[in-house]
Amino acid sequence: MKVIFWDFDGTLVHSNSLWSGSVYNALKQVCPDAKVEFTEIRKHMAHGFTWHTPNEDYSSITGDKWWDHMNAYFCSCYIALDVPADIAESATKNIRNIIKCKENYTLYPDSISTLKTLKDMGFTNALLSNNYPDLCEVLEKLSIADLFDNIIISANEGYDKPRKEIFESAMNLYPNAEAYYMIGDSINADIIGGNSAGMTTILVHRGYDENADHCVDELEQIIEIMNN
Known about the structure:
Helix content is 43%, strand content 14%. The chain is of the alpha/beta class. A 6-stranded parallel β-sheet has the order 5-4-1-6-7-8, with helices on both faces.
């Protein structure tokens, strides 16, 4: 058995200001006249998430507790932008549903065909993503959930890539595998993290980087790598 671990956002799908847009739209749903600019919210979304500080141990805030942790942050962001507390709290409650809307995610044209081809070739596909606990719902909506043997999400594990614990957790699901691969678009989380875990790493959509074992512009190019 050879196991391929896939990153999600930026690798299999691309999204346009996913969190900034969701937090902004959640506020506009509750208060269409709110005097808050998208760019102001975007500044706050550049930090505050667990994957922004992967050196921290978040094992005590997994699942719904992850959402409690993040919702407290989102609400504080609204309030920092002079949104009244009651509106901030109401808007925060909307974010979880908005982030899971299928329309937020666009599959790369060769995502499904590449996943299917590699599966037919005998490889095991598993998702390994720094993401929110409900990501499986989005995979179902995008009709790709069945293409993965396992789905490992940082918000359910309590550790974010490139922490060794999340890679160990993923690899422990396949203790007898002949080889492990990590495919992703983040040099730090996916490539450096995968290298440290002893995986063969493939950087996608980012050009060349010397840290990766392989670099490809299109996902379908991975098929040729796996054929060699």
